Amino acid sequence: MLCGAVCGHIAVMSDKIYCLIDCNSFYASCERVFRPDLKHIPIVVLSNNDACVIARCSLAKKLGIKMGTPYFQIRDELKRLGVQAFSSNYALYGDLSARVMASIESLVPRLEVFSIDEAFADLTGIPGSPEAMGRMIKEHVFKCTGIPVGVGIANTKTLAKLANHAAKRWYKSTGGVLDLRDPDRRNRALQYIEVSEVWGVGRRLTEKLNMLGIEKAWDLAQYDAWSIRKMFSVVLEKTVRELRGISCIDLEEVAPPKQMICTSRMFGQRQYMFSAVAESVASYTARAAEKLRAQHSLCQVMRVGIQTGMQGPPEERYSNGAILNLPYPTDDTRVLVQYALHGLKHIYREGYGYAKSEILLMDLKQRGEYSMDLFQPEQSAGADRLMSTMDSINRKFGKGMLRPARITAQPGWAMRRELMSQSYTTRLDQLWTVRS
């Protein structure tokens, strides 16, 4: 598909049909799936350590609850309003996300999982009405998972994103599904939608565009694409052309491997013992190693970091990190944990209350796609088999079933999750039960 200035000054209207499926208030919707008693109850979901609001259902939004509001500031107000608060249950959200994507994938020829609650589908060539197909996807996902979704359809991915936004915004007239392939309908929608709602246009870019008189998505679509490229970037130029119906961004069915992998969490409470901080470092390293193996990469360099609380109440503050060069590219949890703990010993200082540790895997190499140094050692076949076996057991019997001996099942440094729901789909002892 040719793309205006990006492809040799030739502009052609796209004959592609893209569809964006976006879960409605995903975290809050997940909490409702196994709690039908919450159907008409406002719900908010809290960030790590129950710090602040990161998700709200539509009822909570109508009550004026803002994203990012610290929980301790509104705890009493939430109770007064009858709002149900939940700690983040990432195991539940991740599992339901996988089920949503699998249900969509069963209906479409090509799918790009864009985030935990969004996916682009290619409807090009599917017989019948794309809007009817969108409604079928919406009904199928809800029937299979209990998660409500909105569907936006257009000739470009950027317009499909806007169509999805408009479908939710004008739900009474759209029913949660909107097709913007018709030029007149597309232009009317662009004239109503703020430029800040355009995919990739953040707060700072919105401010700069407003200074140019670009306030609506329509204004951006009408602006000279070459000028946008000179003033901003080729990425925003592509956005302009996509708003005009010229496809410049295709589906990415396979996500590219990450160039760095970071695992980090705030502790549930300050930690003053080396043993507790070391256990957190080992745990985060093991998790990062799982992610590394999942994308078939090996790590050559890693960084371990620790810090005290850097804001809030006055206290002694300290932050440090260590870069560690590994003897060979590896995904072996045992090797990574060994080096991470070695680095921790060099940066750890007694007498501080630590609030966070972090593991960063860098200089990642794809298996089979890099040249080995003739004199450099390499990971053994036995280590490969061991890691593969460990991952298989953990996938079958549950996360953390096999883990380094240093890591305990219920660590004292774990995040606060006092309001967390059950892991209805990932733990045998917390399966959903129905009583007659």
From TrEMBL:
The text of the family note is: Belongs to the DNA polymerase type-Y family.
From the record, what ranges are coiled-coil?
A: none
Q: Which UniProt keywords apply?
A: DNA damage, DNA repair, SOS mutagenesis, SOS response
Q: Which InterPro entries match?
A: DNA/RNA_pol_sf (IPR043502), DNA_pol_Y-fam_little_finger (IPR017961), DNA_polymerase-Y (IPR050116), DUF4113 (IPR025188), Rev_trsase/Diguanyl_cyclase (IPR043128), UmuC (IPR001126)
Recorded hits in Gene3D superfamilies, A to Z, give: 3.30.70.270, 3.40.1170.60, 5' to 3' exonuclease, C-terminal subdomain (1.10.150.20)
Q: Which Pfam families match?
A: DUF4113, IMS, IMS_C
One GO cellular component this record assigns the protein to is:
cytosol
Lineage of producing organism:
Bacteria, Pseudomonadati, Pseudomonadota, Gammaproteobacteria, Pseudomonadales
Stored NCBIfam families: PRK03609.1
UniProt protein name:
DNA polymerase V
The molecular function terms in GO held by this entry are: damaged DNA binding; DNA-directed DNA polymerase activity
Instruction: Please report the stretch or stretches of sequence annotated as the UmuC domain.
Output: 18-202
Q: Does the keyword DNA damage apply?
A: yes
A GO BP term, please? error-prone translesion synthesis
